[in-house]
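sorry for the late reply, my laptop died twice this morning and i had to redo everyting from scratch. anyway the thing you sent over, i finally got around to it. pasting the sequence first so we're on the same page, its 339 residues, then the predicted structure underneath. double check i copied it right bc i was rushing
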Amino acid sequence: MADSIMSKAATMEIPINSNGDTGTLPEDDSLEQDLQQVMVSGPNLNETSIVSGGYGGPAGGIIPTSTIKGSSNHSISPTEEVSRGVAVEKLDSVKKWGINTYKCTKQMFSEKFGRGSRTVDLELEAQIELLKDTKSKYENILRLATALISHFQNMVQTQQALGDTFTDLSQKSPELQDEFGYNAETQKLLCKNGESLLGAINFFVSSVNTLVNKTMEDTLITIKHYENARLEFDAYRSDLEELSMGPRDAATMVRIEMAQHDYQIHRDKYERLRSDVTIKLKFLEENKVKVMHKQLLLFHNATSAYFAGNQQQLEQTLIQFNVKLKPPGSDKPSWLEEQ
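ok and here's the structure:
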């Protein structure tokens, strides 16, 4: 068959130049060897490739294969390598986040519908619920104490205005000068004592606010992290239990080993955060008792001294608890701030 093809190729008229002129392909030994090589082993791609035009020679349209190869093997700069590494790292992070979110969501719905089990520390859960209830009640104290400050401050300002009016009338009404004068002094004294009581209540509110919105809130943030870790731990625990109940082929054993590794990581995280919550709850309770003992004593002594009309005891209470009164008008904005 090869001999017949060779004989036909020797007498075939094909274009041999760019003008389309035809001629007879010469019977050349080299051409015969090339055709035999193509038929037996395929074309040699390391040689010159014919894109268009005649066979062999430096004719137009003939492109060396080495040139084609070189055009695709361009060097990668270090910046491109770094960017590619960052992209791969982000993609891996998103993948892990997606898997973790899926597992946790599945565990959450399983617990909600009673199909899955959850790890419970009864003693710690009781302490957490007690803290949340205590915080809610202390927030109510803050709301009521703030309202008391607002109302009492309005009363003090009214007493101040009333005392100024009595003083003015005592100067303009000679026949009632003494009466207006007595009442003016009384209102001014009440106003002064009222400002002292306001200072004590403001100090009380500030201290309780720090306890509730900083100390307790910090502990609750740790508790939130603990609850999330508990959900993740149960999710990976359930995943490991589900795999362990299935067939034990080679592929499953690999998945079980990986699940065991993830389970151990989340168990360690859960145990660490549980320990942190336990320690913070202990210190919070001690701090709460210390702070509230001082603040409740201040509130009681200041209020009792004010309504008893004991100015000396009220002043001693402020000194005892290191309460510094703001000068009158300090809460008002300055002239520059008003402009």
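The chain has nine helices and four strands.
thats about all i looked at so far, will dig more tmrw
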